[in-house]
Each structure stands twice: as C-alpha cells, then as structure tokens.
Write a structure and sequence with these properties.
The protein is of the alpha/beta class. The chain folds into three domains: about 240 residues, Glutamine Phosphoribosylpyrophosphate, subunit 1, domain 1 (4-Layer Sandwich); about 190 residues, Rossmann fold (3-Layer(aba) Sandwich), CATH 3.40.50.10490; about 140 residues, Glucose-6-phosphate isomerase like protein, domain 1 (Rossmann fold, 3-Layer(aba) Sandwich), CATH 3.40.50.10490. Helices cover about 35% and strands about 25% of the residues. It contains 19 helices and 27 strands. A hairpin with a 2-residue loop joins strand 12 and strand 13. The radius of gyration is 26 Å and the shape is globular. Bound molecules: fructose -6-phosphate (F6R). The site of fructose -6-phosphate has 15 residues, from helix 9 and helix 16.
C-alpha cells in the first residue's frame, strides 16, 4: 500500500507532486520518489525513508518538467532503499504502482531471459520493463500498456509516463483505488481525493479494470472489456488545507483531544436532542427481519466490531458474527439469505475489508459500512453508509476514528433494538441519555491525562505489558495492547480476564505491569477475582475503573484511575481514552516516531 500521484501540468510539477505526496504519506513512508520528463528523457529522484529526504534531495538537485509521477512507498517486495524506491523506469517508460503484482516472478524470469536488465527487487519494476518490451515490439504507448496489463495478476493502481510524450499519462486500476482529477488545461491522478484536494475539485474514480488515457485536454476511459466508458465526475468536498497539529506535539495527541468534539459531531447527526431519540438516515435494510449480522474489519476497527457484537446481542437480541477481515474473506462462511453485513473502516480502502465486503455481496447480504472517508471505495460499494464524523485522522494509530465508530455502532444498537422490539421505552431513553452525555464525560476523562502520564513511566520501563478485561472491556484490553505495541514498540497482550488462568498467568511477575479495565457493571466482581489472582502472584496492577469501582476495589491495585460514572453501555467508549493516553505517553518517553511508527502505514491497501 503506497501512495501514487501524477500530473500533466503547464509548468514545473515537482512542487505539486511533493504536496500531493505529503498528503499520501499516511499510506507509507519507507521511501519516496518522483520522475519527470526533461529533454524528452525520463529523469528521477528517489530517496530512502520519509518524504523529507526526497525534499532535501530535490533542493540539492532540482527536477524540472511539466509532466511527472510520484510515489510514497510501504515496502512489500524488496527492502526499503533507494534502488527499490519508485518510480521504476527504463529509458522509455516510468511507472508508479500501489498494490502487488502476484505473478511478478514469472514475468521477471521471462523478461530477464529476453535480455532485459532489472535493477530492483520489486514486483513493480517488471511492469516498466513489460511495457518497454511491447514498445520495443513496435506498439504505441497505449497499445503497449494494454498488452502489459493483460499479463498482470494481482492488485494495482498504476501511473505511467513515456519518454518523449509530454502530453500523455496512462492510469490503470485493478483492486487498488485511483482517482483522476480535472484542472484547467491540467490533469491529475492520485491514490485518493485527499491527495488531489489542493489541485482539483472535480474527481472521477476509476472502477475495477479501468484503463485511462490522460492528456492535458481530459481523459478517456476503457473498461475491463476494452470498451469506452464514461465515469461520473464528482465535486469533492475535501478541504485543500491539510490540517495542522494545532499546537499539539503530535497529531495523535491532537486527535485524542478532539474526541469530545468529534463524538459530539457524530452524535448530532443521529440523535434528536429534544425528543431524546435516535434517527438514522433512511437505510434500505429491514432491521426487524434481519436473521443475522456479520461484521468484518481490521485492527482497531475490528475491535469496534467486537464491542458491537456484545451490544447487538445483549441489547438488540440479534445473532452476530464478527471476524478479522483477512480471515473472514477466505473462510467461505455460510451466510443466511437476507442477512446484514457491516464493514467498519476508517479509511474505507483497507484491502481485506473491501474483499470481505465483496464476498458478502456475492452471498446476497445487504451491505452497511461505517466509514470515515465518504469518498472511499468501501463507502462507494456499500448499499448504505453510516459516516463517522471524526474528520481527517493523520496519526497512524487510530484514536478518534475508533471512538466515533463506537458512537455510530451504539446508535445503531438502539435503532436495531427498537426495530426488533427488544428494548423498553424507558431503557431506550436511558441509553440515549447516556450517549448525549458522552462528549462531556469524554472531556472529563481527559482531565486524568497528567496522572496517566506519570503511570506511563512505569510502562516505559517494562518489556511486556498485559491488558485484561471482560465483556465490552475485553476489546478495550485488546485495543490498549495494540496501541501500546504499535507506537511504543513494547510487547503487549490483551486478554479476556477470565482466560488468564488458562495459560498467560504464567507470565506474571513484578516486572510485568497488568492493566485491568473494569468499570462497575455486572462483570466487575468477576474481573476483580482475576485481578486478585494477578496480585497474589506479585503482579503490579493499574486498575482503570469508574468512581464506584474505585470506591469498592481501588485499594487492592497498585494504581487506580477512577473515570466518571456512566451507564455501562457507553463505558467502553470512555475507557478507550486512558489506554490511548497511556500508549501515547509511553511512546513519548521511548522517543519513538509516534505519528508514523516504524513498519506501518495508515491505509492498508494490500492483503
Ligand atoms: C491501529 C490501526 C489499524 C487500523 C486498521 C484498519 O491503530 O490504526 O489497526 O485500525 O489498519 O484500518 P481502517 O479502519 O482504515 O480499515
């Protein structure tokens, strides 16, 4: 999963390419590169590491040219270094690619046997050489590209320029997203609309199998059958300005602190404050008769789905299956006719989640997605979308997207429960009330930040950390461990508290901090027993609970944080915040790259 961009401009394009790459850096930051045409020849600048390295290189060694392509890489085939950095080029063609060419080894062997010399370890370089081979055979650029595309297996979004062709760029899409932007005598391509936002307000999304021939005058698109098609042009609502850190040291911290606001924004679109009822947009789904709900998502979004399972089953009395999208897609699950599939994704571009969506569609399910980027592929392929109003999430570790996903899922729980006659009017009002109060309570939780910062000192000194929870606190334990791992690089595990005694308790000693998440609810006493088991074995417990939990059991733990007392229904949304802050402050102490942790990327558009 990489970011690609291309511009046919009127003058030097490098500045705009870099700005677009800056907006795509969330997709990967292992290396970056740009190719333009100069004196009819392809020229490249490429640098290992973050985009800032490429910027420095271009300052020393500028690159003129009115047509160019650019790339920011998340390495799949080949280590992150300059040789493997895109664009990959021959003397006739330069290519940027997002995706994976699965049959690259076969193609590579054939090209090498035919005398072509490949320099990198990447799958992408075969595309440049394959097109070159067809050009060498006498085909024109479009013909050569079409011939090459026919041989590619796997997923790709490609941007291609040709030596000597100042007014031609070819873009192709199969399995990876690609947008074409329209300017005044200028044309653009980009992995998403965000990349193109400062350059173009009018965007066309290519569809699966599309190949687009782009000149400064416009674009012609052929579909997978090679027939000319017209793809609709949409105005994008995205702002040209990339949000700044607003005085915070990191995007992640800013995004944690935005949660009262964005949870409020998300609620406002679904909650009628005066009537204290939830109204979702008109959905083409009959919740009353849905036989089963299947949820698929990845990473943090999957944990949101796990919490929804508890809510949907307990409150709306509907049968729910939830799975990690990368497992789900190959399980060949039997799905009931008329079932509902819910896909959860911040980016709306996660390859495994998209594949799960397509599987569910084949199985005749209605598709509902919960998405933060409304222009995304998953949103566009769904029957209905419930947006999260988190705003752009730039930090690679998901925070506000998670809590707004939970907010949407909580409103959906109430609507489902009402439609199925599973909830009393009084209880429904209590739940809505709890949601309405949520932004204020989340703001209260942020007041514990200083204390959490102190506790982070203890976590930063540890090699392993355990997070325990039961019920809806179990996915929060998983999320706490994920956050800590990904930004502080400390090994952490989340466990169902009751599962500890079946093995993991062997890990307990005084060097392993154990974070127990247990608000005062029907399960707290059970979790408390598990906490005692840890304490009895010398474990140091950080107890994340609420005021009532702290009053009853706070004395037993090494440290106790008493969060505001809320209805247990919304407690997981509240308890997500301290685990985010603990991870954040630990990572600050460890001096890691918090917004762009090593080996990761924000949007995972490969399997
Ligand atoms: C963790 C994180 C990832 C994402 C996952 C799914 O902090 O951000 O685990 O949640 O890659 O991404 P989306 O939600 O874009 O599908």
């Amino acid at each position: 999963m990489c970011g690609i961009v291309g511009i046919i401009g009127k003058e030097g394009v490098v500045g705009h390419l870099l700005e677009a790459l800056r907006r795509l850096e969330y997709r990967g930051y292992d290396s970056a590169g740009i190719a333009t045409l100069n004196d009819n020849r392809i020229e490249r600048r490429r640098a290992e590491g973050k985009l800032s390295n490429l910027v420095k290189l271009l300052e020393k060694d500028p690159l003129p040219g009115s047509i160019g392509i650019g790339h920011t890489r998340w390495a799949t085939h080949g280590v992150p270094n300059e040789v493997n950095a895109h664009p990959h080029a021959t003397d006739k063609v330069a290519v940027v690619h997002n995706g994976i060419i699965e049959n690259f080894q076969v193609l590579r062997d054939e090209l090498v046997a035919a005398g072509y010399k490949l320099a990198s370890e990447t799958d992408t370089e075969v595309v440049a050489h394959l097109i070159t081979k067809f050009l060498d055979d006498g085909l024109l650029p479009e013909e050569a590209t079409t011939a090459a595309l026919k041989q590619l297996e796997g997923a790709f979004a490609l941007g291609i320029i040709f030596a000597g062709e100042y007014d031609l760029m070819i873009a192709a899409r199969q399995g990876s997203p690609l947008a074409v932007g329209f300017g005044d005598g200028e044309m653009f391509i980009g992995s998403d609309a965000m990349a193109l936002a400062p350059l173009s307000e009018n965007i066309t999304y290519l569809e699966e199998g599309d190949c687009a021939v782009i000149t400064s005058a416009g674009v012609t698109v052929k579909d997978v059958e090679g027939q000319y098609v017209v793809r609709s042009v949409q105005e994008t609502a995205l702002s040209g300005a990339l949000t700044g850190k607003a005085g915070y040291k990191h995007f992640m911290l800013k995004e944690i602190y935005e949660q009262p606001q964005v949870i409020g924004d998300t609620l406002h679109s679904f909650v009628n404050l005066s009537e204290k009822t939830i109204t979702l947009p008109e959905l083409p789904i009959d919740f009353n008769t849905v036989p089963k709900i299947t949820i698929a998502a990845c990473g943090t979004a999957y944990y949101a789905g796990l919490i929804a399972k508890y809510w949907f089953e307990k409150i709306a009395r509907v049968s729910v299956e939830v799975d990690i999208a990368s497992e789900f897609r190959y399980r060949e699950l039997v799905m009931p006719k008329g079932g509902l599939a819910i896909l959860i994704s911040q980016s709306g571009e996660t390859a495994d989640t998209l594949a799960a969506l397509r599987y569910c569609r084949e199985q005749g399910q209605k598709i509902l997605s919960i998405i933060n980027v409304p222009e995304s592929t998953i949103a566009r392929e769904s029957d209905a979308v419930l947006p999260t109003y988190a705003g752009p999430e730039i930090g690679v570790a998901s925070t506000k997207a998670f809590t707004t996903q939970l907010t949407v899922l909580a409103t959906l729980t109430i609507v489902l429960a009402r439609a199925r006659g599973a909830i009393e009017v009084e209880r429904e009002s209590e739940l809505v009330e709890a949601l309405i109060e949520l932004p204020a309570r989340v703001a209260d939780v942020l007041n514990h930040d200083e204390r959490l910062k102190e506790l982070a000192v203890e976590l930063a000194a540890a090699q392993d950390v355990l997070f325990l929870g039961r019920g809806t606190s179990y996915p929060i334990a998983l999320e706490g461990a994920l956050k800590l791992k990904e930004i502080s690089y400390i090994h952490a595990e989340g466990y169902a508290a009751g599962e500890m005694k079946h093995g993991p308790i062997a890990l307990i000693d005084d060097g392993v901090p154990v974070i127990v998440i247990a608000p005062f609810d029907s399960l707290m006493e059970k979790t408390f027993s598990n906490m005692q088991e840890v304490i009895a074995r010398g474990g140091r417990v950080i107890f994340l609970t609420d005021e009532e939990g702290a009053r009853r059991l706070g004395n037993y733990a090494t440290h106790t944080i008493a969060l505001p007392q809320v209805d247990p229904f919304v407690a997981p949304i509240l308890h997500a915040i301290p685990v985010q802050l603990l991870a954040y402050h630990t990572a600050v102490i460890k001096n890691t790259d918090i917004d762009q942790p090593r080996n990761l990327a924000k949007s995972v558009t490969v399997e």
